[in-house]
């Protein structure tokens, strides 16, 4: 406990799933939080996104940990909006030490229009860049930038995940391109910020038990042999991704890595691509 005492962390996509888990774990370790989420759906994304009520629940959980928190409903595609929220929050909380660019969507299916490519790429890569670049002016030496990548996004696109290829459809293509570019972006930014002693790392999870995984379009991706697969049907195929015989990891498994990379324990760790994936990257040859 207390590894984040005296630090302020900025987390996007914080209303539920991985983002909420990261925010709460950081708060439990002593951090104050700035958290944002879009709070509404994106038309091309087939599963519902987090609601304002979800974001309020994350606020409640952070406050329950005894930490200060500032929240806002902001789309990560809006760099001006992100900068305004962050500038005001930093003035109130007294600084910024950690950026966790976590917000993401994954619109799947062969019926997703071209706009699905645009939306996935804009949220999953442009949104990361907006988040990081809005926060960089506030970081001092010792600061940490953490970006959420994806094992599935790093697999070559042909074939679909169930056939050891990337996620299918226009949205899957946009998602995969975004996650591949995150790998190069974080490496390059780590070199650029190294002399400033600001570190930059990416975490690439395998399947995580969140709404991004647990939805009909994802079930169909893993069970294309069925017309209307259920969660139970998909969970037969989910373990295919991992070397370890598990269907998915939990958000908390990723949060443990986030807290490490946010804390001073990782003060000399930068430019890394950390796979929290039960061996999926090994199995898939990434």
Automatic annotation (TrEMBL):
<dbReference type="InterPro" id="IPR036291">
    <property type="entry name" value="NAD(P)-bd_dom_sf"/>
</dbReference>
<protein>
    <submittedName>
        <fullName>(-)-trans-carveol dehydrogenase</fullName>
        <ecNumber>1.1.1.-</ecNumber>
    </submittedName>
</protein>
<keyword id="KW-0560">Oxidoreductase</keyword>
<dbReference type="Pfam" id="PF13561">
    <property type="entry name" value="adh_short_C2"/>
</dbReference>
<keyword id="KW-0520">NAD</keyword>
<dbReference type="InterPro" id="IPR023985">
    <property type="entry name" value="SDR_subfam_1"/>
</dbReference>
<dbReference type="InterPro" id="IPR002347">
    <property type="entry name" value="SDR_fam"/>
</dbReference>
<comment type="similarity">
    <text>Belongs to the short-chain dehydrogenases/reductases (SDR) family.</text>
</comment>
<dbReference type="GO" id="GO:0016616">
    <property type="term" value="F:oxidoreductase activity, acting on the CH-OH group of donors, NAD or NADP as acceptor"/>
</dbReference>
């Amino acid at each position: 406990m207390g590894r984040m005492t005296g630090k302020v962390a900025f987390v996007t996509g914080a209303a539920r799933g991985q983002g909420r888990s990261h925010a709460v774990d950081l708060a439990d370790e002593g951090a104050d939080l700035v958290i944002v989420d879009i709070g509404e759906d994106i038309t091309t994304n087939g599963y519902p996104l987090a609601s304002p009520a979800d974001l309020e629940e994350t606020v409640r959980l952070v406050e329950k940990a005894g930490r200060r928190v500032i929240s806002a409903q902001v789309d990560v595609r809006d760099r001006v909006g992100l900068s305004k929220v962050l500038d005001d929050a930093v003035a109130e909380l007294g600084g910024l030490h950690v950026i966790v660019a976590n917000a993401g969507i994954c619109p799947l299916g062969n019926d997703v229009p071209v706009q699905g490519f645009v939306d996935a790429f804009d949220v999953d890569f442009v949104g990361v860049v907006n988040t990081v670049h809005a926060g960089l002016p506030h970081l001092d030496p010792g600061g940490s930038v953490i970006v959420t990548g994806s094992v599935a996004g790093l697999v070559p696109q042909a074939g679909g995940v169930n056939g050891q290829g990337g996620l299918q459809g226009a949205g899957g293509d946009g998602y995969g391109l975004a996650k591949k570019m995150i790998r190069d972006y974080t490496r390059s930014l780590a070199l650029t910020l190294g002399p400033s002693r600001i570190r930059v790392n990416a975490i690439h999870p395998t399947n995580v038990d969140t709404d991004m995984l647990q939805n009909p379009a994802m079930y169909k991706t893993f069970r294309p042999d069925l017309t209307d697969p259920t969660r139970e049907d998909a969970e037969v195929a989910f373990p295919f991704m991992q070397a370890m015989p598990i269907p998915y990891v939990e958000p908390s498994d990723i949060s443990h890595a986030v807290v490490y990379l946010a804390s001073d324990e990782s003060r000399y760790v930068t430019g890394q691509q950390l796979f929290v994936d039960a061996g999926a990257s090994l199995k898939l040859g990434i």
